[in-house]
Design a protein that fits this description.
The chain is an alpha+beta fold. The protein has a domain of about 160 residues: Ribonuclease H-like superfamily/Ribonuclease H (Nucleotidyltransferase, domain 5, 2-Layer Sandwich), CATH 3.30.420. Helix content is about 35%, strand content about 20%. Strand 2 and strand 3 form a beta hairpin. The radius of gyration is 23 Å and the shape is globular. About 35% of the residues are buried. The structure holds zinc ion. The site of zinc ion has 8 residues, from loops. Zinc ion (ZN) binds next to loops.
Length: about 375
């Protein structure tokens, strides 16, 4: 993207800076264009790299507005704007509201509920809800994780509860069927390096139908490269899944082993804790159908951090260990990563006020 746009974004630190930067609709459009098309305009219908601005020309009954382009490919001639075929497609909201909303969501520590976002922006709650989902859809990542990858699982809404009156509640599938808890798989790529300036690795979570080899393995396979170095605890499914990867090392939690040299699952357990805290504290209840969207947002926040140093941490027993200190990428600069893969990801309003996800895949990211 252009140097000037990057400077504009770098200078946004406070709410006041943000409001000033996103005040003008024309400027917001140009900013959005430089983020969605960092390497020049691309036709969202065919991917052709040449198009012309047709602002001011007669198109049908009215004059083309600024920001309307036409694909130069003779077979295509598609007319588009920066929001065409993105989650902002055919939006009635000003772009300035979209950018403000995205900044506010990224500025908050764990995210904002649609009720809070609606209050701050002065839009309806359903509109705020759709804005939130547009963000979540855009930050879904498709690259496979590599290097050292930690895997773990947890239950959305806590562990399956054992009730004293129900002695038949067993382990595994039988136990899950009797509780409303949703099993979730979490995958975190460790940062390549922990010297200052290094970025955090990607983090993913996904709702799975169960923790069988087939269900959990099926969820991990498309996310992690086979040459990865996988670390997990000794859960039965993970022992089997680990065999398909180049290296699989485990820590034995049941015998109270948590760290053995570089073998541990501390990163993924940290991510798990963050997912559970965010869901409980900000979103309260989320349906398993939409859970993956929330996980995209939480995973994106996790990745938007940079190492700033190391500090010695002393445990209660007096044992010393090194702790990595992080700072997050400024929210305005995170916007560049949000809109980078916007084209192709599409959602529409459903007749009952919800959303329908038409495509979760970036086309020209
Ligand atoms: Zn085209």
């Amino acid at each position: 993207m252009s140097e000037m746009m990057l400077t504009t974004l770098s200078n946004i630190r406070t709410v006041e800076d943000m409001v000033a930067a996103f005040r003008d609709e024309e400027r917001c459009r140009r900013l959005l264009e430089s983020m969605v098309w960092p390497n020049g305009r691309i036709c969202p219908a065919c991917g052709y790299k040449r198009s012309i601005a047709i602002a001011g020309r007669d198109v049908g009954k009215h004059r083309a507005r600024p920001g309307l382009y036409q694909c130069s490919s003779g077979d295509c001639r598609f007319q588009f704007t920066v929001t065409t075929h993105t989650p902002l497609h055919a939006t009635k909201l000003p772009l300035s509201v979209w950018l403000k909303a995205m900044w506010l969501l990224l500025q908050s520590d764990k995210g904002l509920s649609s009720v809070r976002l609606a209050e701050i922006l002065g839009v309806s709650q359903p509109t705020a809800w759709r804005i939130g989902h547009a963000l979540r859809l855009m930050v879904a990542r498709e690259n496979m994780l590599d290097g050292t990858v930690e895997i773990d699982h947890f239950y959305l809404g806590g562990r399956p509860r054992k009730h004293p009156d129900d002695p038949s509640l067993g382990r595994g599938r039988k136990g899950q069927a009797k509780t409303q808890k949703t099993p979730v798989l979490a995958i975190v790529q460790r940062p390549v390096d922990i010297t200052p300036g290094s970025a955090a690795g990607d983090a993913r979570a996904a709702v799975v139908t169960g923790l069988s080899l087939r269900a959990a393995g099926g969820a991990i396979a498309p996310q992690v490269k086979l040459q990865a170095h996988v670390m997990s605890d000794e859960a039965k499914a993970f022992m089997a899944i680990g065999e398909s990867f180049a290296v699989h090392e485990t820590v034995n939690h049941s015998s109270r082993e948590y760290v053995r040299d570089t073998v541990h699952v501390n990163s993924v357990e940290g991510f798990n804790a963050r997912v559970r805290r965010t869901i409980a504290g900000v979103f309260h209840h989320i349906s398993p159908e939409l859970a993956d969207l929330y996980f995209h947002e939480i995973g994106f926040r996790w990745s938007q951090r940079i190492v700033i140093g190391q500090a010695v941490r002393k445990s209660r027993s007096g044992k010393e260990s090194m702790k990595t200190l992080w700072s997050r990428v400024p929210p305005a600069l995170q916007l560049v990563q949000v809109f980078r893969a916007a084209t192709g990801r599409q959602m529409r309003r459903s007749p009952n006020g919800g959303i329908i996800i038409k495509s979760a895949v970036a086309v020209f990211g």
